[in-house]
Amino acid sequence: MPIEILMPALSPTMEKGTLAKWLVSEGDTVASGDIIAEIETDKATMEVEAIDEGRVGKILISEGTEDVPVNDVIAILLEEGEDESALEGAGGGAKKDAAKDQEGAPKVEARKTEAPKSGSKSDDSDSGESKAPPAPETAEGERIFASPLARRLAQQAGLDLTAITGSGPKGRIIKADIDAAKEGGAPARADQPKAASADKAAPAEKAAAGPRAGAGAVDAPGFVPPADIPYDEVKLSGMRKVIAKRMTQSKSHVPHFYLTIDVSLEKLMAQRKDLNARLEGEGVKISVNDFIIRASALALKKVPAANAMFAGDKAYLFKRQDISVAVAIDGGLITPVIRDAGAKGLATISREMKDLATKARDGKLMPEDYQGGTFSISNLGMFGIREFGAVINPPQGAILAVGAGEKRAVVVDDAVAVKLMMSVTLAVDHRVLDGAIGAEFLAAFKGYIEDPMTMLL
Amino acid sequence: MSDTKFDLVVIGAGPGGYVAAIRAAQLGLKTAIIEREHLGGICLNWGCIPTKALLRTSEIKHYLDNASSFGLSVKEVGFDLKKVVERSRKVAGQLNAGVKGLLKKNKVTTIMGEARLKGKGKVSVKADGKTTELEAKNIILATGARARELPHLKADGKLVWTYKHAMTPETMPKSLLVVGSGAIGIEFASFYRDMGAEVTIVEMMDRIVPVEDAEVSAFAKKQFEKQGMKFILEASVEKIATKSDSVTATIKGKDGKSTDMTVDRVILAIGITGNVENLGLEEAGVKVDRGHVVADEWGHTGVDGIWAIGDISGPPWLAHKASHEGVIAVEKIAGIKGLHPMKKELIPGCTYSRPQIASVGLTEAAAKDAGHSVKVGKFPFIGNGKAIALGEPEGFIKTIFDAKSGELLGAHMIGAEVTELIQGYAVAKSLETTEAELMHTIFPHPTLSEMMHESVLDAYDRAIHY
Fold first, then answer.
1. Domain co-membership, B138 together with B167
2. In chain B, at which end, N or C, are there fewer CB atoms within 10 A of the end residue's CB?
3. Any CB–CB contact under 8 A between B437 and chain A?
4. Start and end of every Pyridine nucleotide-disulphide oxidoreductase dimerisation domain (chain B) (predicted)?
5. Residue A106, pLDDT above cutoff 70
6. pLDDT tens digits along B282-332
7. Secondary structure of chain B: what % helix, strand, coil (to 5)?
8. Lowest mean pLDDT among A116-120, A174-178, B348-352
9. Are A129 and B338 inside 8 Å of each other by CB?
């Protein structure tokens, strides 16, 4: 009997996802373990493995289809000796009906359909729905009190509990707080008149009117393209939507200010050359960016007040430096995290970064690879950008935007000299960090970059 | 009365009022409570408590009637109705005295008399023909409610009863008609049926205990019918005519035809209406809608300094709802920060019939109406070892979860002792647990509570014992 391949659940809470890509075509023979498709949710892309062997009889859901409900039949696999005629009555082309009409039967088939394999860790798939989101902690290991329901709702909505103020007993975060945060803003703002995103507002104002409008910009596109300009319509990926939502949230909620400083790369380049020569043959090549990650982490260690997170009526000052590094990938960007970067040497950082960037580009990052982080770095130097201001990645307190290293005419000892310089701009959440602290951080950062030997101390 | 100035005056000393007064005293408010009849209110004197005493009698009688199935032999089971009622009154009396002591211990000034609002911040109390005036920064109305009567359905206290008369019968009726199948109607029906009366229940809706989940209603009806009760659904009593020792009720059925039925006694259990009269509400500007005071989610009436809690401010008419509202209102008055208003879906409801019924949160239909996609679990008593050992293999526990978030939306139970089980789900709901925490909770074996676990497991197709 033909085997139905069902839309897998990538997580206990997943209800639907995008069938991003088919890696097999109708007629292809697949063996158990072959990767047959890629499924995308707003958080990750995962592969679907075949568990049975056979021939792909029919693909029912074409690639690129969004919002495919979990357990819908996405393809039919023919077993040995079966031909296309077996598709009839096997729900071929019947799509959803196949799953619905045979209550009971699909359950058995569902087990035959391999749950997504995602590297070595996929504990999500076997514990089923009973898995509770872990109790969140601050980076200091301090427990955040939140009801189980609030934890799960926050996880589903992509909200960071550390940024939410609880209104339950002793500040416990409860469902109402998550609902309020989803509506936009702190719980105290829940009673804010909804007119904030009044329809009368001009489109431009609307987009900037606040979190409510911001979320709407993703959920309910309001703009109609002009009729006389040809265009391509591009559907937003899950990642794109998350970026849109989070960046709107950040820009409309977090009071940013910017501090720019120029640093000399002269010594660093020399040091790098020397180090890489020594590392030759070990497969490690330290990049300028690796130096920047380490220097940032050490500067944060030196100025812990800059390693901060705003949390309503309190701030958290982290004692570990987890650096999120923006990596551009197809269709957007993602920020894998170098954990405890302040305690890691350049070679380790370099190796980890290379690994994370590869995973990121292949869409293989696991949530633990990109969630969290206490500080971000965004580097557009390789594109020749001289300097820029980045958008803070909430709930973090700051992000460092790194420009290109370039030769500039600078004044040294009252004479113009040619030096390899780089400008960096720190975007700071003014609710938790002030100019002086930002400046102190940048001074420390400059110190490490301009005299990289000090990074060894 | 020397002292006439208070921070808070509570009118009515039922489970809403006296709890509010004690909480206020704990918070340091100078508090007085005014009661016209009896401390503890209806709940303690003429409601929850004395009926539980009566139902205990009928329950034991039921066991004795079935003694042989437990291997016991009982020669003859009889009862002395006077003593049954006496016990019930004694229980009420004991608790009434207890409330008096609690108020005294907490230094709440207790005043027996009739209260009336007298302009801003003033309350007059009439007692023994004398009128005193009290000043209060805040006033809580907690006068409760009484049985609703309709123009054509009035109790005479002899043949046609309200709950109050039904609690102190002088003779055991051979036949009884109960009008209304809510908690009050069903409890009396259950008591009188177990005591040997022929019981017929008339209900306007298409199912009994209409506030409960439809599956519970259907199961309850089947169980009661097995015990010999009769139900006339989608019907109403058009009129009643009393003779010397019998009542003839004219019942209009769903086919529109009227039939007469003659019974010994009739119990009216057609809802309740708030005690809103003679309180000076209109002059004070307090709004009354369909027999109940209008108040916001904190119990505030909209008139400065005047609050209303419990039955007088609307359904559900439950003692624990009144108490909780009282505490919330008092804490609001005391200016405590971070309060949350009462969430109605967190108020459990219990009916002490045989079998018992208990629930909290949304019914399956209400959950679906509210737009939830649901996961429903159900576990029968027959799959539980303790239930079988108790000789109570009939009943079930049903749980309803939001499919997406795993929020426990509602729980519905029918069967032995379920009124003592429902608090587990009430705690779960209050703490906002999801199915995961309930699944990970270890329930002791052998207990009826294991069914609570299994019901949750069943919602996720993981039930073990069924």
1. no
2. N
3. yes
4. 347-455
5. no
6. 999 999 999 999 999 999 999 999 999 999 999 999 999 999 999 999 999
7. 35, 25, 40
8. A116-120
9. no
Whether A221 and A255 share a structural domain: no
pLDDT at position B162 is 95
CA A402/CA B187 separation, integer angstroms: 75
- ipTM for the predicted complex comes to 0.81
User: Hey, what's the torsion of the CAs at B329, B333, B336, B337, to 10 degrees?
Assistant: 80
Residue B289 lies in a domain: yes
Judged against a pLDDT cut of 80, whether residue B116 lies above it is answered with: yes
Q: Is residue B194 part of a domain?
A: yes
Does A152 reach chain B within 8 Å, measured CB to CB? yes
Show the CA angle centred on residue A287, arms to residues A285 and A290, nearest 5°: 110
Residue A132, chain B, CB below 8 Å: the answer is: yes
The answer to whether residues B326 and B363 belong to one domain is: no
- For chain B, say whether A130 makes contact (Cβ under 8 Å): yes
Helix spans in A66-104 (H): 96-101
Domain boundaries, position B17: 5-147+273-334
For residues A256 and A345, state if they share a domain.
yes
Give the domain range for residue A304: 240-456
Q: Check which CATH number belongs to the domain holding B83 and give it.
A: 3.50.50.60
Report how far residue B458's alpha carbon sits from residue B379's, in angstroms, rounded to the nearest whole number.
7
Q: Cβ B433–A148 below 8 Å, yes or no?
A: yes
- Chain B (367-406) residues lying within 8 Å, Cβ to Cβ, of chain A: 403-406
| Confidence label for A217 from pLDDT (cuts 50, 70 and 90) | very low
Determine the pLDDT at residue A112: 36
Number of domains in chain A: 3
B412 given a catalytic annotation: no
Question: Domain holding A367: CATH number?
Answer: 3.30.559.10
Q: How many domains does chain B have?
A: 3
Residue from A430, A431, A447, A450 carrying the catalytic annotation: A430
Q: What band does A107 get if pLDDT is binned at 50, 70 and 90?
A: very low
pLDDT of residue A254: 93
B366 within domain boundaries: yes
Give contacts of A174 with chain B, Cβ < 8 Å: 432
**B11-55: pLDDT as tens digits:** 999 999 999 999 999 999 999 999 999 999 999 999 999 999 999
CA distance A154 to chain B (A): 10
Are A129 and B436 within 8 A, CB to CB? yes
Average pLDDT value for chain B: 95
Give the lowest-confidence range in A42-51, A261-270, B239-248.
Answer: A42-51
Q: Which residue has the tokens 């509202």?
A: B325
Yes or no, beta carbons of B432 and A147 under 8 Å apart: yes
| DSSP states of B397-453 | EEEEEETTT-BEEEEEEEETTGGGTHHHHHHHHHTT-BHHHHHHSPPPSSSTTHHHH
Mean pLDDT of the region A23-51 = 79
CB < 8 Å to A175, chain B: 407, 432
- Quick one: B303 and B419 in the same domain? no
B377/B422 same-domain check: yes
Last residue of a domain, one of B253, B270, B287: B270
Catalytic residue among B440, B445, B453, B465: B445
Helix segments in A128-168, DSSP class H = 148-157
One domain for residues B209 and B281? no
Do B260 and B137 lie in one domain? The reply is no
Question: Quick one: angle between helices A288-302 and A346-361, nearest 10?
Answer: 120
User: What's the predicted TM-score (pTM) here?
Assistant: 0.60
Q: pLDDT at residue A185 above 90?
A: no
In our burial notation (b when 16+ CB lie closer than 10 A, e otherwise), range A1-22 reads ebbbbbbbbbbbbbeebbbbeb
Q: Does pLDDT of A2 surpass 70?
A: yes
Residue B440: list chain A partners with CB under 8 A. Answer: 130, 132
**Residues of A in Cβ contact (< 8 Å) with B432:** 147-150, 174-175
* B395 close to B418: Cβ distance less than 8 angstroms: yes
Alpha helix segments (H runs only) across A220-287:
238-253, 266-279
